[in-house]
Design brief:
The protein is mostly beta strands. It has two domains: about 45 residues, no CATH class; about 300 residues, Neuraminidase (6 Propeller), CATH 2.120.10. The strands form six sheets. Strands 7, 8, 9, 10 and 11 form a five-stranded antiparallel β-sheet that branches. Strands 3-4-5-6 form a four-stranded antiparallel β-sheet, with no helix packed on it. A four-stranded antiparallel β-sheet has the order 12-13-14-15, with no helix packed on it. The longest helix has 19 residues. One of its GO terms (molecular function) is ubiquitin-protein transferase activity. It holds the Pfam family b-prop_At3g26010-like.
Length: about 350
């Protein structure tokens, strides 16, 4: 009979520990930024094998999609990374010296950067700054100009172990006066293709304003917002109520951020067809979503009326306040100081610390 037998508590606790270890290994580690995940290779041999496997890199690129930092670059200067949390996010070479030539960053998307060489043929490169993997892209037949309006689109897919991405460039047409054309690079085919759709009308596109949201690429222009739908291959012009402001994403929608003094207002695109509604309709194209006032003790009183938004998504906003770069967390409502290295003429690109393989 086993009535008086003392249960083996040590064995039971050991099984519980192993089960918890497996749960963490399979379901928690992939959500960590790349820098943190690599650190956990030192825990044990099992974790080292797990994290170093190609399948883990694929799972991590799918699971970790929060903005980890901001890549910034002065004109003709070297890039550098401003991490949101330096303990968990970082890259081995933030100056991108592993590329074959000095480059300018043109766009970023989910851990990948699109860069352009400064000399010669102005070659485009796609790279992962954490793994230092890179690819040189073929030359396009279109002339993109000296400062191309480039948007990189990379969305990790469960079924694609090799990163598939697109690059969209809006450029002035050389065949039609006052028209904008769109050149698209498809990584699957490995070639550039000029879209059949054009947008007519005299306007200046602001190159660094480009952003992708739900299959549509948007740019700020001197008159309005230019949209190009990649799925439908169609363009549209949206009212922006002024040419100043910053485009970002919020709650899965396009948002436009405007600054007035020390008040930052965030408006979400609500209806792209409001201009076709009947007269007197109450439906508006933009709806106010958030009003943000940064902590003056963090940003400094002297910078209270000199804010420039560098990035915004549903989780975080990064703002240049005078010479201080700060972040604002939409959940905690806390303002955090990040760096004092960024200048007003910098170009900034959101970065996800990813292990995605090229």
């Amino acid at each position: 009979m086993d009535r008086g037998k003392i249960p083996d508590l040590a064995a039971r606790s050991n099984r519980i520990y192993l089960d918890l270890e497996d749960i963490i290994k399979e379901n928690a580690l992939p959500f960590l930024p790349a820098k943190s995940a690599v650190k956990f290779q030192a825990v044990c041999r099992d974790w080292r094998l797990q994290i170093s496997a190609p399948l883990f890199a694929h799972k991590q690129s799918l699971s970790c999609n929060s903005t980890s930092g901001i890549f910034s670059q002065l004109n003709r200067g070297s890039p550098f990374l401003i991490p949101i949390d330096a303990n968990s996010c970082g890259v081995p070479d933030p100056f991108l010296n592993f590329l074959p030539e000095p480059v300018d960053i043109k766009s970023s998307s989910n851990g990948l950067l699109c860069c352009r060489g400064r000399e010669g043929d102005k070659v485009y490169y796609i790279c992962n700054p954490f793994t230092k993997q890179w690819k040189e892209l073929p030359k396009s037949n279109a002339y993109h100009g000296s400062d191309p309006a480039i948007v990189l689109l990379f969305e990790p897919s469960l079924l694609n172990f090799v990163a598939e991405y697109k690059i969209i460039c809006a450029f002035p047409s050389t065949d039609f006066d006052k028209a904008t054309e769109f050149d698209i690079y498809y990584s699957r085919e490995g070639c550039w293709k000029i879209a059949e759709e054009m947008c007519f009308g005299s306007r200046t596109i602001f190159p660094k304003s480009g952003i992708h949201v739900n299959g549509v690429v948007y740019w700020m222009t001197s008159k309005n917002i230019l949209a190009f739908d990649l799925t439908k291959g169609r363009t549209q012009l949206l009212e922006s109520y002024g040419t100043r402001g910053f485009l970002g994403t919020f709650s899965g929608k396009l948002c436009k951020v405007d600054v007035s003094g020390d008040i930052i207002s965030l408006n979400v695109l609500a209806n792209t067809h409001s201009n076709t509604m009947q007269i007197g309709s109450q439906i508006k194209m933009w709806s106010e979503k958030e009003i943000v006032v940064l902590d003056s003790e963090i940003v400094g009183d002297g910078a209270a009326r000199n804010h420039t938004v560098l990035h915004v998504d549903s989780d975080i906003m990064v703002v240049l306040c005078g010479r201080r770069t700060c972040s604002y967390d939409f959940k905690s409502r806390l303002t955090k100081f990040l760096s004092s290295k960024v200048g007003i003429l910098d170009r900034c690109f959101p970065y996800v610390n990813s292990l995605v393989s090229l």
